[in-house]
Amino acid sequence: MAVNNVKKLVYSSSCTIYGNPAKLPLTEQAETGNCTNPYGWTKYIGELMLQDLANSDPEWSVINLRYFNPVGAHKSGLIGEDAGSCPKNIFPCLTKTAYGRMPEVLVFGNDYNTPDGTGKRHGQS
């Protein structure tokens, strides 16, 4: 970054840095650092490191984006991942199955390292 004189950074943080807040809705002024899991701590420490960098050099500008729902869904399909009636990748299939909107996750293909070439392993029901 120094070689290319990069002094502006957008950091992908997370709402997990708020921990379990006592008051909702959250604002940017809400207390941070009461993380409840390792992922939250890594995001919080990342923010602290970048804050130290920006404080030590006024040419630096850092913005933290604290995502609240990068992956996940509500069973209604109104919030989060909902790929419609025919998902094309694995995550929407898993969430739809978990919420009972699909009966099962189907694995396609015929070149698997199994006796008959299907994704089903011998001895599975």
Automatic annotation (TrEMBL):
Coiled coil: none annotated. It catalyses: UDP-alpha-D-glucose = UDP-alpha-D-galactose. Pfam families: Epimerase. GO terms for molecular function: UDP-glucose 4-epimerase activity. Pathway: Carbohydrate metabolism; galactose metabolism. The keyword Cell membrane does not apply. Gene3D superfamilies: NAD(P)-binding Rossmann-like Domain, UDP-galactose 4-epimerase, domain 1. Its EC number is 5.1.3.2. Keywords: Carbohydrate metabolism, Galactose metabolism, Isomerase, NAD. Its cofactor is NAD(+). Residues 4-121 form the NAD-dependent epimerase/dehydratase domain. One of its GO terms (cellular component) is cytosol. One of its GO terms (biological process) is galactose catabolic process via UDP-galactose, Leloir pathway. InterPro entries: Epimerase_deHydtase (IPR001509), NAD(P)-bd_dom_sf (IPR036291). This is UDP-glucose 4-epimerase. It comes from Mesocestoides corti. The lineage of its organism: Eukaryota, Metazoa, Spiralia, Lophotrochozoa, Platyhelminthes.
